Amino acid sequence: MSTLPCLDFDVKTPACIEWRSNDATQWLVDPDPQRDHLMLESRFCNETSSASFQLLCPIRVKGIESQSHIICLIHTSSITSFDFEENPELPDPVRKKLNCKAIRLHLESCQPLDFIVPAAATEPVQPRKRLSGQAFDSLRSLAKASSLDIYISAREVSQIKLRAVCEAISRGVMKPFHTDIPALLASLYGSSGGKIVNLPPLRKNSSESPNDEPPSYADLEPPPPPDDCLLPQPKLKSPLADTTATAGGSNTKRRRLNDSGTSSDADCYRDILDTLCHMREGMQRLMERVEQLEKENQDLREELDDLRASCEKATDAIESDEAAFLEVHEELDELKVQVDFLSQGGLYSDAEEHLVEAVTDSVLTHMLDGGYNAKITIEKS
Q1: Which of 73, 146, 297, 345 could share a disulfide with 114, CB 3.0–4.6 Å?
Q2: Which keywords accompany this UniProt record (predicted)?
């Protein structure tokens, strides 16, 4: 089997999902909380010709107090078609969420997605908030899709690697990255474990047939009033008793409303605390980043000062070298003129005067010495 080029890489990037359901286009763009992103996590190994595809959707589910996510597992062996398109026309929800140049990955599968939740989540799996319910409805619709488009940033993966994946899937040589599903489930959620679940309908009336689509969270109506409110009230004998009973009934109803709203209020407070914690962590990270940038800025300033001082020294040295070079050049010019003059047999005036003086002194000295010797000879005779 020939090896596949450029197939060793990991991808974990924000994504948006698009699919068709009941002749209508559906998107999964905003999880809960909305400030987070739906993530595509993929791994590819050239040596083993294996790959994995997972979609991580942040969502709040009952039984898990902290923020968690649902994993949508796409079985590699079930992918019948894989293709991509660079710089496609983005739908408005996708463009607002990603806000960058994107690539659209097109997947077709012969097997539905598996949904994995933390092992501590209660069953049947239920969302804790209305926003989680809306994302939950989208996941229920996505579970029935056999074809989906995944939008990711164009900067995350090259076209060469995507073509290698397309070639591997078209040749049917791509294998699942994880073959031991129990071991995979045990390693998820910080090794606390996960489990594969079916997403149940949120509400089902007795008049619905088993194949009817359950209502979405956005379409749910308030629950009907309690049965005791529909019963006829007994006629009281006195207005005082009637007033007392009415007040008592009002208080009873108020207590019930307060009791029913306690859970939602607690969730609201918990969300506010989570938001404040995230804001505090974000501010702390920003402060640390600012301190780091200030330190780097100070180091750069000191380095810049050193460079300026070095440049000034180098400039002074260059100027000194230039002056010395000019002096040497002038001396060389003078020496050249002297050499040319001497080579033509010429003498400078100073040299001539010195030569005349030397010859004169020599002649006079010789004459004086000769006359002195002659006188001495005569006297001896």
Answers
A1: 73
A2: Coiled coil
